Structures are given as C-alpha cells and as structure tokens.
C-alpha cells in the first residue's frame, strides 16, 4: 500500500516521525513521507502511525 500525508491537515505533532522514522521525517516543522518510501503502507509501524495521527493526515491507499 501507499502512504501519504495531507499537508493541509498535518499540524506537525511529529508522532509519525517517532513511530516510523525510516518512513517519515520532519521538514519545515511538518511530517512528510521520506522520498522513496511512498510504498511503505504495509509496514505495521506506518499503519499504527496512520491510526494514531491526531489530525488523521496520513492516508494508506492501494
Ligand atoms: S502524526 Fe500526523 S499531525 Fe503529526 S506530524 Fe505526523 S502527519 Fe503530521
């Protein structure tokens, strides 16, 4: 699955970066998917990050 972050929803809590630092990073005070890691949606840590994102900014799609 693919993972993405909606920049209009993210408010930079950084929880995703702490949960899955190999997939998410913090850029200009917002969470983003690291380049080349867009297909990491099946990673359990990424799934958990999506479920727990306080602004529901993380999407998992086929
Ligand atoms: S957990 Fe959600 S709100 Fe926080 S940085 Fe990540 S995407 Fe943004």
Automatic annotation (TrEMBL):
Chain spans, region Disordered: 35-62
Domain of life: Bacteria
Keywords: 3Fe-4S, Electron transport, Iron, Iron-sulfur, Metal-binding, Transport
Protein's UniProt keywords contain Ribonucleoprotein: no
Co-factor(s): [3Fe-4S] cluster
Pfam families: Fer4_13
Family matches, as InterPro entries: 3Fe4S_ferredoxin, Fe-S_cluster_ET
Record-level Gene Ontology MF annotations: 3 iron, 4 sulfur cluster binding; electron transfer activity; iron ion binding
Residue ranges, compositional bias (Basic and acidic residues): 35-51
Role summary: Ferredoxins are iron-sulfur proteins that transfer electrons in a wide variety of metabolic reactions.
Name of the protein in question: Ferredoxin
Taxonomic lineage: Bacteria, Bacillati, Actinomycetota, Actinomycetes, Kitasatosporales
């Amino acid at each position: 699955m693919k993972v993405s972050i909606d920049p209009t929803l993210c408010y930079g809590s950084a929880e995703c970066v702490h949960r899955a630092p190999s997939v998410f990073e913090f850029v200009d005070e917002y969470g983003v998917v690291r380049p080349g890691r867009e297909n990491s949606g099946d990673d359990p840590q990424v799934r958990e990050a999506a479920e727990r994102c306080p602004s529901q900014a993380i999407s998992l799609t086929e």
